[in-house]
Predict the 3D structure of the following.
Amino acid sequence: MTTQNLPGQPQLAYRGDTLFLEQIRLSDLAKAHGTPLFVYSKASMLAALAAYQRGFSGRDVEICYAMKANPALGVIEVFVQAGCGFDIVSGGDLDRVLAAGGRADKVIFSGVGKTRAEMRQALNAGIACFNVESEAELEVLNEVALSMGLRAPMSLRVNPNVDPQTHPYISTGLKSSKFGVAHERVVPTYQRAAALPGIKVVGIDCHIGSQITQEEPYLDTVDRMLDLVEEVERCAIPIHHIDFGGGLGIDYNGDTPPDAAQLWKKLLHKLDARGFGARRLMVEPGRSLVGNAGVCLSEVLYLKPGDQKNFCIIDAAMNDLPRPAMYQAYHQIVALDARPVSSAATWEVVGPVCESGDWIGHDRTLDVKPGELLAVLSAGAYCMSMASNYNSRGRAAEVLVDGDQSHLIRRRETIADQMRQEALTRPGHGR
């Protein structure tokens, strides 16, 4: 039997005419669990993590999975078992880390809108660090910590005004962004933090954006961050760790992001040259660990030829795969059955949601029939994590593949699940 790997998808291959993820036939999973269905490769996640580990070999580094990319408990568990820390952005994220067996003291808490309740929750749990994103947040964190008789470990998230050269919605390191403290306010904000009795300065943080495919933004950021560390430490405020964030892109459509191992070797060379080689480091990869580990399986419902466009209507929609509608993002779409092409046509691949923006792929050449199965690739990040119940659609099931074993890590959501927290105004009527 011939094997044909898909470009950029090391665990995804046709064996004969059938698409496999690791050792599992994807059509078997669709038959067992229905569609839409998200399927993730454990081996792919660990291989992506290994690239970071190679780049940081011999260094004092904490790799913190940015779980907003995919917060499924079964996915978090993979990174817990691999010894990772976690980058969270809500109290719910912290609950998920702990439920999956993660350690609070390996958690860093990012995000511009942390509530007092979330701060108390994180302090009670004993997290490693708050990445503070504004001067106002710093004052509130100090108040909360003092009310609990504690000191909150914090680093300041710096907005270095570096253009990550990515989509505007996922650029977070420019002056126009809501994220982080402006470069010129960093030193005075650290001076204020050092004077607050409920605050313990432990580090400095930055994150310039997501789906970055070039080295230059990272290299520019390193220089700016090290300049700031030197300025802050001249004020007798020690910086114990430097957090360079995440954002490294993946291959969606022939993209060529830097290899993680090689990129971090270059960045470490810069640190060594400036005398920071022994400093504790943190990074926050998310998409680059899980993005290419996932596929979304979907059934073709109808083919609707037209004068200007042909529509291939599938059972996955913008509520399952929001990236195309939100970011005009590209995902490869392939058939699970790689039979010889006999009647290929160009299709708009769309879902059943009642929105013109409900599209998954524009102008795709496919040879498909109703009832056949398609795989939307590179669906491991920012798909299920942003999924919704729009049009009262249940969120999809999720499966984790590990070699020749598969594990249902999320059952399909039912309408009863959706309505469980709702109530009618007249008790005893309706359901």
Summary: The radius of gyration is 23 Å. Residues 55 and 262 are 6 Å apart (CA to CA). Residues 164-174 have pLDDT under 50 and may be disordered.
